[in-house]
Every structure is written in C-alpha cells, then in structure tokens.
Sequence to fold (410 residues):
Amino acid sequence: MYEFLRGLRVVEGASFIAAPSCGLHLLQLGAEVIRFDPIGGGPDHGRWPVSPQGASFYWEGLNKGKKSIAIDLARPEGRDLATSLVTAPGEAAGLFVTNYPADGFLSHARLAAARPDMITVRVLGWADGTTAVDYTVNCAVGIPSMTGPPSSGGAPVNHVLPAWDLLAGAYAAYTMLAAERYRRDSGKGQEIRVPLGDLAMATLGHLGQVAEVAVSGIDRPRSGNDLFGAFGRDFVTKEGRRVMLVAITQRQWTGLVAALDLGGSVAALEGELAVSFAADEGARFAHRDRLFPLVEAAMARRTFSELEALFDRCKVCWGPYRTVKEALDNDPRFSTSNPIFTPVEHPSGFRYLTPGAAATFSGSQRAAAPRAPRLGEHTEEILAAILGLPAHEIGRLHDRGIVAGPANKG
Fold:
C-alpha cells in the first residue's frame, strides 16, 4: 500500500476479476475505492475458493481495503442512489470502473448527463457487446489449441490462470489514470472500453503470433512443456524431483552448459550441425531433440541439492516444481520476510498472508495490506460523507430496504 494516488476517489460497480482487480491496483497505490454491490452480494460474492464456512477467499482477495456499500439495485431508488454515488462531486472524483452493460442504467451517457467530466472505464467481453469471460475469449483466439503435449491430439487444453482478466484489470487501471490526467488538462471526461477480446487479440499481435500464422498459413504446433523458440523444459533430478530449466539469453545458456559440465558434448554437437547454440536461441529450439537427452542425463546423475548449488553459482535460470502448499511451507519469499505480505484477519474469520502492491517503490514507505470489508460495512459512512444524507434519510433507506449494512456487525 502506497499513497501516490491519495485523494482520488474511484467507484467500482463490478464483479469477477478484471474490473475489481482494476480497483484493487488503484487502491494499493493510494486511491479510495468504494465498491457497491446488491444487498446480499453480487454474482462473485460467494465464488470459490471458499472457507469451510462458505466465505469467499476470492472476494476477500480482490476487495481488500475497499469500502463497501450494499444497495438494492433492482429498485429505481436504489439505482438512483448508485448513480448519485458514481457522479458525486469532487475534483478527484467522478471515476468509475465497471463491467455493467454499456447501455444499462449505468451507461456513460446517463452518467455524463449528471456529471459532464465523468470518466468511465468499462470492461467488456467482446467489443461488440457479446458476452464473454476469460476462458471463452481464450478458446476463441486459439490459445488452448497450442497448449499441451502433442499427444493430446486435437483436444484443447485450458489453463487455470485467467490471463486476460488479470491483464485487463491492470490495463484498465492505467487507462483510467491516463484519462484522469487528460481531464486535469482539458476538463473533459470520457468512456474507455476495455474488451477482453481486443486485449487478447492485441497481445497475440504484440507477441508476433498473428504474423506467424498470417505469413505461414498454418497454426503453431503444440510443444508440450518445451519453451517455444528457445531452450526450456522440465527435467528430473536423481531422486525424482522435477525442475524447470530456461535458457533464452546467451548468458543463461552458457551458465547452464557450465553447471552441467556439458561443454564438450555441446561443442561436438555444434560441430556436427554447424550451428552455435550460444549465439542462436532458435537453434536450441530447432535441435532440442538432440540437446534434451544430454541435459536429461546430466540432471539424472545429480541430486536436487547438488543442482541447486551448481545452478546458483552459474546463474542458471531455473525453478523447482511445487504445489502451492509446498511453496507456502518452504519458500521464504512466501512469508513475512517478503514485504508484500502481511498476516491479516479477514471477515471470513481467518488470518492469512495477504499481499499488498506487487511493486516496490524505493523512495516510499510501504504500508501493510488491509483487510477486506464486510459486505455493506461502509454503507452509512458513504451515504453521509459522500452523498451528504442526514441520519433520518439514511434510516429511511434502511427501513425501506434500499440499502443495507453488514449482516454481522460483530
């Protein structure tokens, strides 16, 4: 947690990963982020993983530090209240991140009618408004068809990391800051749309994969755990432990060869093939079927501890394969020795390592990660401080079920 964006007020009306992670990034850099949800919680309020009692660790993780107000968004008065919150005055307010439909009651046109300098960042599935989530975008752009071992045939292989959601959240955060800077100079607000589909397609283009297929006319074949275009794969140690080795740069390659004492074997192979593996990372990939057996044999002769010492001395790029539990139990980087982590007790009733901002700013003091809010925990505070409602009006909204506080105030 840092204070660089102190004074900015962002309102979040969103669920799932992309838009809430946008709000989280901004909060961790100092912005005040107010999240509104339907009374009882939105579609992500109980999403897995959950505690034994059913509290969502997912919701806690994405919403830590945010202020929470619960509103009945099915009723006109509740929708008006949400709109008033989004468009509330303030030089550093009028910032809204959402994945609500573009033509609904929170359309940018309606918000701008109440506040002309409104900035709305809207995360979409596809740019034309077609519904999509990370996994349906991912399959549509071809990633699962190039993932997995060649032996999988034509069956797609999904992965568990929602990459486009996560990238969209970060991208949405800095587009909001860009629009806020533009507003400071021009006084003009605007809507920014961040479709997962466009982000995915643009990323394939940035990485050369669109050009690769457009020029060749064929899809990239699957290569399993092999790193495409360079040297990399999982290998097994003498006692059966599995590690990932990567050699993209010349320095990484020469370090690996030195660590495994493969100089003579590699030089002989280079002479036979008339290539330089040190100078050409593509040659390492093209001839991986000749290189892999050399590395496999060298790895199988050594224990994990022996290899760890060799790799560290020779600056090899490598990593052990672990489960999350093994990482939590054994890696000091997954502990309070890493300043991004703080043990925090959350509304679920559990205390666990909680990360703050991933970036470290050398000239600024990092604050501890905050806890997640209880749903509706800040309802009265927000109605009074942001919307200026008197106590009797707040009471009336509660009585009529337009708003709600936390279910458990204990």
In short: The CA atoms of residues 69 and 200 lie 33 Å apart. The chain has a mean pLDDT of 97.
